Amino acid sequence: MILPIYTYGHPVLRKQTEEITSEYPDLQTLIANMFETMYHADGVGLAAPQIGLAIRLLVIDLAPFKEDDPELGAFKCVMINPEMLEMSEEELDGSEGCLSIPGISESVKRSEWIKIRYYDEQFNEKTEEFEGFKARVVQHEYDHLEGSLFTDHINPLRRQLIKSRLTNIAKGKAKCDYKIKSA
Fold first, then answer.
1. CB within 8 A of 81, min separation 6: which ones?
2. What whole-number distance in Å separates Cα of residue 94 and Cα of residue 155?
3. What is the pLDDT of residues 19-33, one digit of tens each?
4. DSSP assignment, residue 51?
5. CB 169 within 8 A of CB 182
6. What is the band of 183 on the pLDDT scale with cuts at 50, 70, 90?
7. Which domains does the chain have, with CATH numbers?
8. Less CB within 10 Å around the terminal CB: N or C of the chain?
9. Could you give the CA distance from residue 34 to residue 38 in angstroms, rounded to a whole number?
10. Catalytic positions
11. Which of 133, 28, 142 is nearest to 75 (CA)?
């Protein structure tokens, strides 16, 4: 089922999320719905707060990049209760957008590599290191679980320049090709 994506200004996007257990109601259905919602919106990552749930769950599928990089194209994962263990001090600049902030993309500095512990969809514990673009996408989605958005990481001058566009999104004036829910 395709779910509405909550947009900038909705309080759920700023909430601290709660851990879940394997007993979370209809977890596998929720995960499937998150992937379907993400694919429908042409996204590569989606965190639970973006569909209105303040829980520590995110999905990623970098298949759209398989022609450019087969390794990226093979990266698909579910992360439950992720915990960031380490982040490099070295940072890389890169353009980011967000399904919850339609029509806006900005340059964001992210750690070049990260080490993260999480549970997969069968609740197997994993600890993995990611670098480059994978690390960027994981950090972006992880931020959602911490109540942070990519716009929090941009230059204050750039944030001021896009303020009116963010305000319009918060007022429900966003235009996009997928279902949204504003504040």
1. 19, 20, 56, 57, 118, 119
2. 13
3. 999 999 999 999 999
4. G
5. yes
6. confident
7. 5-181 (3.90.45.10)
8. N
9. 6
10. 141
11. 133
